[in-house]
Amino acid sequence: MRESHKITSVFAQKRLHLFFILSLWCKAILAIPEVVAGVITLVASRRSLLAFVVWVTEDEFAVDPHDLFAGFLLHTVQHLSVGTQEFAAIYLLGHGVIKLWLIVGLLRRRLWYFPIAITVFSLFVAYQLYRYTFTHSLWLLPITDWISSSSRLPGTNIERYDRRRRGA
Q1: Does residue 50 lie within any of the structural domains?
Q2: 90 lies in which domain range?
Q3: Rounded distance between C-alpha atoms, residue 71 and residue 65, angstroms
Q4: 68 falls within a domain
Q5: How far is CA 6 from the centre of its chain?
Q6: N or C: which end of the chain has fewer CB within 10 A?
Q7: How far apart are CA 137 and CA 150, in angstroms?
Q8: Any stretches that span the bilayer, and where are they (predicted)?
Q9: At what angle do helices 82-107 and 113-135 cross, to 10 degrees?
């Protein structure tokens, strides 16, 4: 009975680790466009951003003139201040670069990256919740949820990597 529990536990740990690795790769894939969007937002004019959003949403508005997401996106860009654009650019760029750096360290199985990743992701969540109290921006809610889910994953693998490093 005990042996079957150990085998089940080993398979559960392997599935959890596979989920962890896959989630890191997904986050890396999503971090790259985040960095690109940060750079574009930093160097593009407000007028260029508006033209891009109009181009992206025109087909959607042709199908459904009352599309909520397309309307929200267009409204957001139309009312974008210079300060908000700069904040968004720096935030996207910084968040994407830091996330890629942490993901590379976690994929390389460097043990000291785990507590740093947990701390940094938690600080991002805290800062986004703080920003939300001032801006009430709906954009911050899904981003915060996505980041908070990632901040829990590194902690599930610390013990496993620690045992492997010690040779146990």
Answers
A1: no
A2: 2-31+80-166
A3: 8
A4: no
A5: 34
A6: N
A7: 21
A8: 20-44, 87-104, 111-130
A9: 160
List the structure tokens of 53.
Answer: 């959003």
Q: Could you tell me if residue 125 is inside a domain?
A: yes
User: Smallest Cα–Cα separation from 156: which of 3, 23, 52, 7?
Assistant: 23
- Contacts of residues 142-147 at CB distance under 8 Å and 24 or more positions apart, as own/partner, are 147/121
Does 61 fall in a domain?
no
Tokens of 86: 């700069």
Closest CA to 44 of 11, 96, 88: 88
Cα–Cα dist 40/34, whole Å: 10
Query: Residue 102 has which token pair?
Result: 């942490």
Instruction: Note the pLDDT tens digit of each residue in 68-83.
Output: 888 888 888 888 888 8
Q: Are 97 and 106 a contacting pair, CB within 8 Å? A: no
Q: Report the percent of the chain where pLDDT is more than 70.
A: 74
* 72, amino acid identity: F
The token pair at 138 is 């709906």
27 CB neighbour count, 10 Å cutoff = 21
3 state DSSP class of 108: coil
